[in-house]
Amino acid sequence: MTALTCVATEVLTTHQKPVGYAYRTTPATPTDSGWRFLSGSESEKYMNQPSHYITCVLDDFAREHPDVAPLLAHPAGSAFERADGRGAFEAVPLD
């Protein structure tokens, strides 16, 4: 069985910043979980660079960022954020 993937910004995967915003879209491929993870501090200029997005194995990402594990059962259309990057995630509308 092929592992499900997610997409995270480079600041999470390379610079180990905490997840500040997480949302789930309709999966783009059969192996895509639909989950997208950001620190929440990325600028628009940063986000406009495709090289700043990393496709990861979802289970591996959740092991490195265990605070997102409770979110993973939520369906597409879900979004969560935390104001300080360290507190509890709160459900927010998906823009």
From the structure above, extract its key features:
single chain; 95 residues; six-stranded mixed sheet; 6 strands; globular
* SSE pattern, N- to C-terminal: EHEEHEHEE
Low-confidence stretches: none
Biggest sheet character? 6 strands, mixed
Shape: globular
The percent of residues in helical segments reads 10-25%
Overall pLDDT level: 92
Number of spatially distinct domains:
1
Radius of gyration: 12 Å
Beta-strand level of the residues, as a percent range?
25-35%
Oligomerization state? single chain
Distance N to C terminus: 33 Å
Strand order, biggest sheet?
Answer: 4-1-3-2-5-6
Number of helices: 3
Structure, explained:
This protein has 95 residues and is α+β, with helices and mostly antiparallel strands. Helices cover 16% and strands 27% of the residues. The protein has one domain (5-88). It has three helices and six strands, in the order E-H-E-E-H-E-H-E-E. It has a six-stranded mixed sheet. A hairpin with an 8-residue loop joins strand 5 (79-81) and strand 6. The termini are far apart.
Show the helix and strand layout.
Elements: E1 5-9, H1 10-13, E2 21-24, E3 32-38, H2 44-47, E4 53-57, H3 58-64, E5 79-81, E6 90-91
Parallel strand pairs: 1-3
Antiparallel strand pairs: 1-4, 2-3, 2-5, 5-6
